[in-house]
């Protein structure tokens, strides 16, 4: 896992592809790496959370470079068994620290520069400068600060990427999906029927959607029991390999035991996500959690089950048995 790799100080000068260089502002990239939105997200992780930011030329697991990106002239990251800090980002921090030192206190500094460094970030940076935390924060006299972007000029303060951390955005996304269903338009979701045989399902809301044929019976039983299914796939690893391979390493970085795609990819397993409100949904979640070799994760209003195709018959039986929990026709569900 990339988070376990040792961290190295930055090089003396930012690379030509550095996202902090002014010359790379809004540069064409298959994954919008140089957009204002991405700059905002990256700077928030540093300025608010005090995170480490690695040079993408050595972060192969975080920044895969598919053929379409190589065709644009981007270099493929090198695997050096460690993560090297981004020199461009260090130059931005050095300038920000110097600017902050011109103010009487932190409050006045943030009034003038509302996207400036938080007290948490200052504390972490000081620990690294003092050598209490690795890697050493190494400033280079060779780096031209005039060539790196000013966060005050580039950060979109109205963006959700500034208002929420990566984890906060994930929480928000999960809640919205649980309430409204998935609206993902990634290559895997948009072109799913081209790699897995589809069969139409009538949802609990009366909509018709294509689902993987192998899961149709189980999803139908869950729907008839009143469970609102949100997302499913018989083998997301296979779909990623065929439709969006560059995304796979990023999804594998997610922490184990959380509601994410990591384990289902590693196991090449099937999965279903559903809204866990309601008696039937809670009962299905509980019985699935007690079944050997079925992984159940929960976050807020959403539950995810990960399983092998061999478990589909028993899960279908569970779902079909939930009909007894439904209220008689014509009665209130409140």
Structural commentary:
The protein has 334 residues and is an alpha+beta fold. The protein is built from 15 helices and 8 strands. It has helices at 36-47, 67-71, 87-100, 106-112, 119-129, 151-154, 160-163, 166-180, 187-190, 216-224, 236-243, 248-252, 262-267, 279-289, 312-320, and strands at 7-8, 83-84, 198-202, 208-212, 229-233, 270-275, 295-299, 302-307. The strands form 3 sheets. The protein has a 4-stranded antiparallel sheet. A two-stranded parallel ribbon has the order 1-2. Helix 10 runs parallel beside helix 15 (312-320). The longest helix has 15 residues, at 166-180. It is elongated, with a radius of gyration of 24 Å. The two termini are 46 Å apart.
Architecture blueprint of SSEs:
Elements lengths: L6 E2 L27 H12 L19 H5 L11 E2 L2 H14 L5 H7 L6 H11 L21 H4 L5 H4 L2 H15 L6 H4 L7 E5 L5 E5 L3 H9 L4 E5 L2 H8 L4 H5 L9 H6 L2 E6 L3 H11 L5 E5 L2 E6 L4 H9 L14
Parallel strand pairs: 1-2
Antiparallel strand pairs: 3-4, 5-6, 6-8, 7-8
Helix pairs in contact: 10-15
Summarize the structure.
With 334 residues, the protein is an alpha+beta fold. The protein contains 15 helices and 8 strands.
The structural class is: alpha+beta
Mean pLDDT: 88
The gyration radius over C-alpha positions equals 24 Å
Q: Count of helical segments?
A: 15
Helix-strand topology string: EHHEHHHHHHHEEHEHHHEHEEH
| Biggest sheet layout | 4 strands, antiparallel
Placed side by side, the strands forming the largest sheet appear as 5-6-8-7
